[in-house]
């Protein structure tokens, strides 16, 4: 039993809705999953107060006191180094020391990236751990890897991103033989900038991924690839632009429906199905973005995550552990 | 009179709808504008046949025979060098030789970029002519510069893009004191990759543009900047992704409205206003993308452009000439 148990340290103080939604998400997660234990890290009093609102199995939730909080406007490297008793740093140390398998945080992205590398640590052989959010496509999701810190990535980094992303999609998301595409500005091998031109032949040579060649940004929403490999500058541009277009769209549709009483009635008739469709544009609906290639899983959820996303993020960690992702990474990539 | 006349050479054989829509667009343009003359370049018989369908002022449209056509799947450098009697090359030579002020083409993007530099030629002091499409925002348009060939741009190139874009938006599009933003993955000066970090201080120093700092991709649809400066890899990703999201959106909405008879009725009620709104997602609605910094204007319209976009592209050239854009560029940038 203890072998199968996944222990998730949740940074209960990070994000816009901390600690309330973090605690609620944890309570829901331990109700849904059997082999899980959540350790809520942060100010004990605040967490206890929130926990008091729910009934739950007390063997499955613990509190670990941490007195400091890292704010989103702090310089990540300094904050992680100095705030040794912050909820994020304490949670990450638990992974390093083997007390937890994974960390879930809705806090500062920069601090999560820095802490992941500096505290949790990289798997031997992994050069640059990428952050890989799932983004919606017309009929599913795709992993956009990297959206983290590797803005001046080299081709050797992209090769590792491709392999890490492929393992994640196959074993955590259950996509068989995931299609790996290189984000580029043309379909042909010789297209692109120096980075993509250098990366293409390296990806083509790999025998442990299903490389389908270049994919253009136009094809992303169609679901042309399961894993989209890029440097973090391009990845962040795509991710943020998706969010911006979604917001613009919602505002535009609202203005249409408010324009006249007739339009308003038209809206009422399609409301239910329309809102379901528009949800596809929410890039934060699919749980958290894993920071891959570390000695343990670090999952970053959106700063504005609610209990439902927190819960999904926590449960992601169970699959990650049960599928022995770290071992797979070591076997497939790092050892080579 | 002849001093004020703008002569536009139209590549009548380029694009999916050539020569029909190109000819029709030219006829409409000479009807709308007084001080314009269009030279339709391409296979004389085919052009004559199309022209025969319309009534127009014969002093304002000429045909220049060119027997070859550059296809979109040809290698641009080779095609431009070898096909000396292609409609695109002949049209560009007319600009070089002073017979025309501008070229409009819906043909191969690669050939337009190559021909622009090799045949029309750069203004002295301009290093890398950028291609700058207008993209829709929530309440207008923004110039995305560069979406051309400069995928491995240097900071000095981005500085010129910023200046060229600012001049274009101010004098051709009539935006007063256009806000110039650097596409980046964070708001602060120190954010980004090595290119944006190097470019930011250079833009800040310029006294001939209204630099507003970094803008994130999320802010583009809100209309946070009039000129968005980036390398062509990022620019093309944004441009193509916009197109892809627009297509996805349209497909999703159609599926909502087809889902039930009730939804279908709801659609009929909002149809008119909704379609007007969705047009905002069409990145090819705003005429053509200028290739800036050349000894004459080269405008690339979408490969699938119809007469209305061709007409807008041709009329753009008139403003370009009347506003003496080339002189302004020479004064503000090249001479420095």
Q: What would you say this structure looks like, in words?
A:
Two copies of one chain form a homodimer. In chain A, α6 crosses α7 and α8 (232-258) packs antiparallel against α9 (261-278). With 336 residues, chain A is α/β, with parallel strands linked by helices. The relative contact order of chain A is 0.17. The longest helix of chain A is centred in the last third of the chain and has 27 residues, at 232-258. Chain A contains eleven helices and eleven strands. In chain A, the strands form two sheets. Chain A has a six-stranded mixed β-sheet, with helices on both faces. Chain A has a five-stranded mixed β-sheet with strand order 5-6-9-7-8. Helix content of chain A is 45%, strand content 16%. Chain A has helices at 20-32, 44-51, 76-82, 87-96, 109-120, 155-172, 194-205, 232-258, 261-278, 307-322, 325-334, and strands at residues 6-11, 36-42, 61-65, 102-105, 134-137, 140-145, 179-184, 210-216, 227-229, 289-291, 297-300. Chains A and B meet through α8 and α9 of A and α8 and α9 of B.
């Amino acid at each position: 039993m203890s072998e199968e148990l996944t222990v998730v340290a949740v940074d209960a103080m990070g994000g816009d809705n901390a600690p309330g939604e973090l605690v609620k998400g944890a309570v829901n997660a331990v109700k849904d999953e059997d082999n899980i234990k959540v350790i809520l890290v942060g100010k004990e009093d605040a967490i206890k107060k929130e926990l008091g609102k729910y009934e739950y199995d007390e063997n499955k939730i613990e509190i670990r006191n941490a007195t400091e909080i890292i704010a989103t406007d702090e310089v990540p490297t300094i904050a992680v180094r100095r705030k040794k008793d912050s909820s994020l740093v304490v949670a990450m140390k638990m992974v390093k020391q083997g007390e937890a398998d994974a960390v879930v945080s809705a806090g500062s992205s920069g601090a999560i990236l820095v802490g992941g590398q500096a505290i949790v640590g990289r798997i031997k052989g992994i050069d640059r751990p990428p952050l890989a959010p799932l983004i919606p496509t017309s009929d599913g999701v795709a992993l956009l890897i990297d959206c983290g810190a590797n803005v001046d990535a080299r081709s050797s980094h992209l090769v590792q991103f491709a392999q890490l992303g492929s393992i994640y999609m196959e074993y955590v998301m259950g996509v068989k033989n995931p299609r790996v595409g290189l984000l580029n500005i043309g379909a042909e091998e010789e297209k692109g900038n120096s980075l993509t031109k250098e990366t293409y032949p390296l990806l083509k040579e790999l025998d442990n991924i299903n490389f389908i060649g270049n994919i253009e940004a136009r094809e992303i929403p169609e679901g042309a690839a399961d894993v989209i490999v890029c440097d973090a500058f391009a990845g962040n541009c795509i991710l943020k632009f998706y969010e911006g277009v979604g917001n613009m769209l919602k505002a535009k549709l609202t203005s249409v429906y408010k324009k006249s009483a007739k339009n308003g009635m038209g809206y009422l008739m399609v409301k239910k199905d329309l809102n379901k469709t528009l949800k596809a544009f929410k890039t934060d609906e699919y749980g958290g973005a894993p920071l891959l290639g570390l000695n343990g899983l670090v999952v970053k959820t959106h700063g504005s995550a609610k209990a439902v996303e927190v819960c999904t993020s926590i449960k992601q960690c169970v699959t990650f552990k049960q599928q022995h992702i770290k071992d797979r990474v070591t076997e497939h990539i790092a050892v080579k």
